[in-house]
Write a structure and sequence with these properties.
Its EC number is 1.3.5.1. This is Succinate dehydrogenase iron-sulfur subunit. Its cofactor is [2Fe-2S] cluster; [3Fe-4S] cluster; [4Fe-4S] cluster. Belongs to the succinate dehydrogenase/fumarate reductase iron-sulfur protein family. The protein contains 8 helices and 7 strands. It is of the alpha+beta class. The protein has 2 domains: 108 residues, Beta-grasp domain (Ubiquitin-like (UB roll), Roll); 139 residues, Alpha-helical ferredoxin (Fumarate Reductase Iron-sulfur Protein, Chain B, domain 2). The strands form 2 sheets. The protein has a 5-stranded mixed sheet with strand order 2-1-5-3-4. The chain has a two-stranded antiparallel ribbon with strand order 6-7. Helix 2 runs antiparallel to helix 6 and helix 3 runs antiparallel to helix 5. The longest helix is centred in the last third of the chain and has 16 residues. The chain is elongated, with a radius of gyration of 21 Å.
Length: 257
């Protein structure tokens, strides 16, 4: 298969970017999108040209590192990660536009690689559970209903790729943040910090420069894990709960929970 590629090239964060046209030929239809870029880079390097920078790691749809906007869609035409997008998904001889995930909070490192550490900082702001020493309780001593377990695990499958942010017209990170809050706040281990976790994570999300949610729903439609919009509703409820339970500035520490 042969393709014309319009690839975003940017030398560094502060440099102006531009699309560059190149062609790839004799690509195996069963090759993944990243394998096609590998073949392109081998040709560029052998010709003395600079390779195209892009992120990847596991290449099994697990880590969320691969982050490309392909023909205007985060990760490509199917609701999977970029590494699980195959060249057979495109018409032979077609033109493919390749861009990085675009958001104020995702600065371009080079070409198609962006810095998504803002998502890590949101987790760090409140995404933890208390750890105690000494004997731990029997897990069976804290029964969890099947429905709660299902909701928590459905949220826990978020891989933090950032496709939801790239797809949102507002550049919101509500689906990501909602998934993390839902996962931790539903389980018994997350209860000690439940009252403040959502408040802190939302504050961190706003500080990073992400936009607000207005229920477009594009985030859920491109999520490779199929996380639903219900986690955003959960985040809103938990945030209101956290604000109500927030102690007054002069309240004694014992009133913090």
């Amino acid at each position: 298969m042969n393709f014309r590629l319009e690839i975003w090239r940017q030398d560094h964060r502060d440099a102006p970017g531009r699309f560059e046209t190149t062609h790839v030929e004799d690509i195996d239809p069963e090759a993944s999108f990243l394998e096609m870029l590998d073949a392109l880079n081998e040709r560029l390097i052998s010709g003395g040209e600079r390779s195209v920078a892009f992120d990847s790691d596991c290449r099994e749809g697990i880590c969320g590192m691969c982050s490309l906007v392909i023909n205007g869609m985060p990760h490509g035409p199917n609701q999977v990660t970029t590494c699980q997008t195959y060249m057979r998904d495109f018409a032979d001889g077609s033109t493919i536009w390749i861009e990085p995930f675009r958001n104020t909070a995702f600065p371009v490192v080079r070409d198609l690689a962006v810095d998504r550490s803002a998502l890590d900082r949101i987790i760090q702001a409140g995404g933890y559970v208390s750890v105690t020493t000494g004997p731990q309780p029997d897990p069976n001593a804290q029964p969890i209903s099947p429905e709660t377990q299902r909701q928590a695990m459905d949220a826990a499958i978020c891989i933090g790729c950032g496709a939801c942010v790239a797809a949102c017209p507002n550049g919101a990170a509500m689906l990501f943040t909602g998934a993390k809050v839902t996962h931790l706040n539903l389980l018994p281990q997350g209860q000690p910090e439940r009252g403040e976790r959502a408040r802190k994570m939302v504050a961190a999300m706003d500080a990073e420069g992400f936009g607000g949610c207005t229920n477009y729903g594009e985030c859920s439609r491109v999520c490779p894990q199929g996380i639903g919009l219900d986690v955003i509703g959960m985040l809103n409820r938990e945030y209101r709960r956290g604000v109500r339970k927030r102690p007054a500035p002069d309240a004694p520490p014992m009133l913090a929970q």
